[in-house]
Amino acid sequence: MTPAQMQAFRRVQRRVVAIGFFMVAVHGVLGLVVVAEILVGQDRRDDAILLVLMSGVLAVVISVVVRVILACARPFSWPWALLSLVPTAVGLALVL
Length: 96
Known about the structure:
Elements: H1 3-41, H2 45-69, H3 78-84, H4 86-95
Helix pairs in contact: 1-2, 1-4, 2-3, 2-4
């Protein structure tokens, strides 16, 4: 393989790993929101709010890790961090 082909191959490898990591990790964020909704049904609203906030922290960490895997110049990006908080915002709307 030529150096250009190797570089392209590594870029594709990073993208595949980032997508795989994201798909596995996002289940944790969504799972926390679903469990929070279940806790609201059990009249444990304080615990549900805590779980939704934890899902927000996890979502931002996942977005940073994905950007690190992709070898972005800056691991933290405000637009991506805000986008990663969408499930948390939906969870807060359901819980409150």
